[in-house]
Design goal:
mainly alpha; two-stranded antiparallel sheet; 79% helix
Length: 337
């Protein structure tokens, strides 16, 4: 472990926490938009549904790889935290997995079954996407509330579930603005306008609740000089929401030269929100109970795992980047022959 600077018992847990956080962030943005596309399908015509599914067809499998990466890192690098978090979140995790399975099966079957049965699998695709998004939002809210089994924690988690679902729908709409054209693109612009306010409300609710449930986070947010370190995040988020609203109301957003702006802005909004949460909860991996240092595996084990991660992570990133490069441009019909 000679190339690991400093004390390995400190450095290695920080490295793995950063890698796990990066994997979660990439998953939320990438799988968030394809879950959002699935959530929006009931609002579209049959022809538009086909084009919407075609817009995510080459990417959705690769996007979900990042979730596997994040959970795998949690398991091997922080086994104590893995047990505590998964035990507290057993039911929503199970529902999320059911949603992901239903969604994957529906994605394939809707393109291969006889036309009269296609509507059933379209509904299954929507149901799987919705269940997955609600489950993930619930888990986020319950985690913020400290994994505490109280009525307030469950109510807040349900509210967060709806907010994150709206956020994924917003991401999906922004993706469709980028990847489609004509009437569907116009519909996507309208969907993005309507869901942007739910995103802003969700960010506001999480921002208000987070310092209230933890005296430690309250001190970190509102003491000096930490207040001035954190202040740019909400200010930038507010500016981004205003900027996105302005962009979505312009005619130029439908032009190829500007169609990427809503998705880029939405992704940056998620990055800012994630940075705020990471700043608030560090160094805890189980809120106010277990730090990354207490939960980490032995340094010798982490060192061996790190070698494997340094091989696997570039492969996943390279495969994802290659798929986005090959299938760049507007979505076309998704074919299986």
């Amino acid at each position: 472990m000679s190339f690991i600077p400093g004390d390995p018992t400190i450095t290695l847990p920080v490295i793995f926490a950063a890698l796990m956080g990066l994997s979660i962030l990439i998953y939320v943005v990438l799988d968030g938009f394809d879950l959002g596309v699935g959530i929006l399908t009931p609002l579209a015509t049959d022809a538009q549904k086909d084009r919407m599914v075609a817009s995510i067809g080459p990417f959705w499998d690769a996007n979900e790889t990042w979730l596997v990466m994040a959970v795998g890192l949690l398991l091997v690098a922080f086994p104590v935290a893995h047990g505590a978090i998964l035990t507290a979140l057993y039911l929503p995790v199970a529902l999320m997995l059911i949603g992901l399975i239903l969604r994957g099966v529906a994605f394939e079957f809707r393109a291969k079954v006889p036309a009269p049965k296609k509507a059933l699998w379209n509904r299954a695709f929507f149901g799987g996407s919705l269940l997955t998004a609600l489950s993930q939002g619930y888990m986020l809210g319950f985690y913020i509330m400290g994994l505490d089994h109280s009525w307030s924690a469950h109510v807040f988690a349900m509210l967060t579930g709806f907010a994150l679902t709206a956020g994924f729908a917003f991401l999906g709409a922004c993706w469709l603005i980028l990847k489609t054209e004509g009437g569907l693109q116009g519909q996507a612009i309208l969907w993005a306008r309507r869901t942007l306010w739910a995103v802003a409300a969700g960010l506001g609710a999480v921002s208000l609740a987070t310092p209230l449930v933890s005296a430690r986070i309250w001190d970190r947010w509102f003491s000096v000089p930490e207040f001035f370190v954190l202040a740019p995040l909400p200010l930038l988020s507010f500016a981004l929401v205003a900027g996105l609203w302005g962009i979505l109301r312009t005619r130029q957003v439908a032009d190829d030269g500007f169609a990427w702006l809503p998705f880029a802005g939405a992704s940056l909004l998620y990055i800012l929100a994630f940075t705020g949460l990471a700043y608030s909860f560090y160094p805890f991996v189980v809120p106010d109970k277990v730090t990354i240092y207490d939960a980490a595996a032995a340094p010798e084990s982490l060192f061996i795992i790190l070698i494997g991660v340094l091989i696997v992570l570039p492969v996943i990133a390279g495969y994802s980047a290659l798929s986005y490069y090959i299938f760049r441009g507007k979505a076309r019909d998704l074919r299986y022959d």
